[in-house]
């Protein structure tokens, strides 16, 4: 675990002063990405203290209740990244300091091509800045909205990628607990990037009972307040697969309580355009009994995934020592 000794020394909030600058259009190739990442990682190796003066700020990439995410360029190496800006005062009011601390601790140890990388963090009197990998494809949620639904090949590719990322997380004793299209980003080559570990936890030997996550993606055991483990993430893979293919979540209902009822009863139907192979996979994952759900490794080896997926590992992760 990393130490964050004075990260949450709160002071009255000051007005954020970030001047957006038009960053030059990126000319991207495998060689350029590999070279830029190598130089930037070298810079990270010797640089001990970061500040806003080390970056040029570009357009906002997104906004949330605690702050915003900006496109940024590190001045020395010209490396493009995303800076997540979080206001300390807002965190304090929500009493979520521990949640951010845990997210930083977990992200600092994760290295996987389908997990959004956190390079480092720094803070000033009023704000915390997370230095994150830039995912130029944006949110999977927006891509799904634009396309309404995805075909078998694209969906199977995403399912293989998210399953591999979660297998890695679980091997590191980490449960994500908030899988949803809004928390999945698309990288340079369209590859999936698991992001936002705000609800994630270290499992160790403890089974959790906290109700967290997004309503449509909650597993039955979480709704019932029963102890849960990494199988809640497996459940979410089934929900994600269904939503990508159908264009909507399987247990959607007019009210939250009705959605909960449908989830607990595993009451859903397939639209006619979903293939038999996809139906078989989803049915085996969306099992009410956690330990009966198809394991992540078997999801990746399922015939529908094996025949439809077009996953390609980015060369930068194979060749660059990170």
Automatic annotation (TrEMBL):
PANTHER family attached to this UniProt entry: SERINE/THREONINE-PROTEIN KINASE IAL-RELATED
Family designation: Belongs to the protein kinase superfamily. Ser/Thr protein kinase family. Aurora subfamily.
SUPFAM superfamilies found in the cross-reference section: Protein kinase-like (PK-like)
Enzyme class: transferase
Statement: the UniProt record of this protein carries the keyword Nucleotide-binding: yes
Residues that hold ATP according to the record: 65, 84, 88, 133-135, 182-183, 196
GO molecular function annotations of the record: ATP binding; protein serine/threonine kinase activity
Location in chain, cross-link Glycyl lysine isopeptide (Lys-Gly) (interchain with G-Cter in SUMO2): 180
Keyword Transcription regulation among record annotations: no
Name of the protein: Aurora kinase
E.C. number: 2.7.11.1
Assigned keywords, A-Z: ATP-binding, Kinase, Nucleotide-binding, Serine/threonine-protein kinase, Transferase
Superkingdom, taxonomy of origin: Eukaryota
Catalytic activity: L-seryl-[protein] + ATP = O-phospho-L-seryl-[protein] + ADP + H(+); L-threonyl-[protein] + ATP = O-phospho-L-threonyl-[protein] + ADP + H(+)
UniProt cross-references to InterPro entries, sorted A to Z: Aur-like (IPR030616), Kinase-like_dom_sf (IPR011009), Prot_kinase_dom (IPR000719), Protein_kinase_ATP_BS (IPR017441), Ser/Thr_kinase_AS (IPR008271)
Enzyme active site: 178 (proton acceptor)
Domain Protein kinase per the UniProt entry, residue ranges: 55-305
Record organism: Laticauda laticaudata
Pfam families assigned to the protein according to its UniProt record, in alphabetical order: Pkinase (PF00069)
